[in-house]
């Protein structure tokens, strides 16, 4: 059986069309996945800072990894890490409490979360390194910067 001429001319056209469309389709798909990861990271860190603030207002220190001489600020940071689904170290957070920024762990101090009845504003300034070049092109230096915060009043402790 002989194939009609109009069908012979269209052989391979699907492959050519797929070769043209596939890179664009995959790029869009990967971009959507990257944006989903960015939003997931933001929501996860918001949850972690809220749980850290809830822990901070209790005045407890039992979450500090050190067995002796437990510190409240180390316990709060550990609580944030525990609730960040492993993203704490990936976002390189800068911790601010009541407007005072603590860029390094050497700046932490025993009074950074205040006394009973004080208002505590716990804020994390985070940076997420983007992996997809097309998505990274929309952000300065290929990084998504975001801030998460929680405000609560210290309990009587």
UniProtKB/TrEMBL annotation:
All residue ranges annotated as the TadE-like domain in the record: 12-54
InterPro entries tied to this protein: TadE-like_dom (IPR012495)
Keywords attached to this entry: Membrane, Transmembrane, Transmembrane helix
Keyword Transmembrane appears in the UniProt entry: yes
Transmembrane parts of this sequence: 20-40
Protein name, per record: Pilus assembly protein
Protein species of origin: Duganella flavida
């Amino acid at each position: 059986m002989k194939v009609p001429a109009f069908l012979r001319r269209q052989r391979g056209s699907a492959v050519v069309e797929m070769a043209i469309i596939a890179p664009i389709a995959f790029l869009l798909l990967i971009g959507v996945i990257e944006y989903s990861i960015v939003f997931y990271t933001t929501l996860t860190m918001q949850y972690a800072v809220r749980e850290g603030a809830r822990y901070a207002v209790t005045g407890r220190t039992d979450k500090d990894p050190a067995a002796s001489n437990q510190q409240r600020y180390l316990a709060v940071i550990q609580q944030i890490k525990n609730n960040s689904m492993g993203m704490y170290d990936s976002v390189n957070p800068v911790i601010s409490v009541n407007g005072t920024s603590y860029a390094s762990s050497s700046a932490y101090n025993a009074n950074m979360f205040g006394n009973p009845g004080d208002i505590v504003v716990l804020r994390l300034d985070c940076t997420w390194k983007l992996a997809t070049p097309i998505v990274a092109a929309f952000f300065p230096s290929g990084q998504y910067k975001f801030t998460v915060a929680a405000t609560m009043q210290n309990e009587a402790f």
